[in-house]
Amino acid sequence: xxxxxxxxxxxxxxxxxxxxxxxxxxxxxxxxxxxxxxxxxxxxxxxxxxxxxxxxxxxxxxxxxxxxxxxxxxxxxxxxxxxxxxxxxxxxxxxxxxxxxxxxxxxxxxxxxxxxxxxxxxxxxxxxxx
Length: 130
Prior knowledge:
The chain is mainly alpha-helical. The chain is 52% helix and 0% strand. The chain is built from 4 helices and no strands. Helix 3 runs antiparallel to helix 4 (74-91). It is flat. The mean pLDDT is 78.
């Protein structure tokens, strides 16, 4: 059984247990929630989106905050552009199904290495004396 299914079953067992009161169930559910891998923690995703958005927005706001600057410094512009690209890539939906098992790529055997023939070999060129 996969860990995700095990954690979901733990959730069901805690919820359905009639011996536990509400407070005990709340504490146990919180502990079971911590068993999930970090990829499933929604606060990680929210934090990433907020930080990348703040960096991108800061790049746009910079000329208004610092009116003496005639143009945005190239370093800040590069960081803002990278943040926008990362944010766009991060928010784009993943089209791969998660339950599909990964398979090793099918590699065909490499073609046999043919040693050079006498016709292909060149004679060394004579040294040129200056």
